[in-house]
Design brief:
Distance between the termini: 17 Å
Shape: globular
Helix content: 25-40%
Number of helices: 13
Bound molecules: N-carbamoyl-L-aspartate
Radius of gyration: 20 Å
Structural class: alpha/beta
Largest sheet: 5 strands, parallel
Amino acid sequence: MTAIARASNIRFPHRHLLGIEGLSPDEITLLLDLSESYIEYHRQADKKRAVLRGRTLINLFFETSTRTRTSFELAGKRLGGSVINMSVATSAIKKGETLIDTAMTLNAMHPDVLVVRHPDSGAVKLLSEKVNCALINAGDGSHEHPTQALLDALTIRRRKGRLNGLVVAICGDILHSRVARSNIHLLTTMGTRVRVVAPPTLLPAEIERLGVEVFNDMRRGLEDCDIVMMLRLQSERMHGTFVPSTREYFHFFGLDYEKLSAAKPDAMIMHPGPMNRGVEIDSEVADDIGRSAITEQVEIGVAVRMACLDMLTRTLPLSAAELA
Ligand code: NCD
């Protein structure tokens, strides 16, 4: 399967990757298969490929990031592209330039891919209508974070051998989480049963319309599930008080061994990072190498970003050298 994704000149039928919503199971599988083949590449000593030779990638991050920005940078460089990181803190945005003007300025420099993270839901889609390069959403407000959902799905598929029929419990601050939204779209599209587990204050209204089961109790939500995905309280997106205290939140919703015992004995623990130890997850559980896939998610993240950059820049038939 992975050989097909790499070797044939298959194109992704979209110019941009703005979200998971609307992607078909075949399109998702194509990206996962190509990502899988890149995992092997970046475990080799020589990680350089020429797939992006001559291409320019600009990382434009209006929010802080460790994993996502670094992994896009690594992915671009390992594929042989030129990578520029725009630091918003030192850019003309600080002088009052609008988002669109900044994007149009960068667009005039002919990048091939713009990777954008922005605090406003919908901002990346708006930009996609203004630029003529490929655009990847690296997280827009509480809307979508498609590459995170792809890396989560690949982590699950590699450990469990499939997505279809598994039970995944996504726990914590669902309301403010673009990771939750993208994961819900991806997993339900691929036939995974998704549960969301959170206090009512941290659940969006009518979330069940996305095809998920809703729980307000951790033990019931985790019962016999295959995957436990924990999310951080995203206080930077909160206006007002959503939980009485982090201590109380940990007591009821923090993942510890006691709550985890409700899940299947081989249930895998995931977290997109950054983690707040002692708030949504107990330190020992997070570091449990037998159960936690948290560092594996980071590794797979680079491969997924390589695959997305590769797929979205396939405008010309790839040469034999590029495929090697
Ligand atoms: C997530 C994000 O930025 O949405 N982090 C990430 O990309 N790894 C989750 C979060 O910030 O809690």
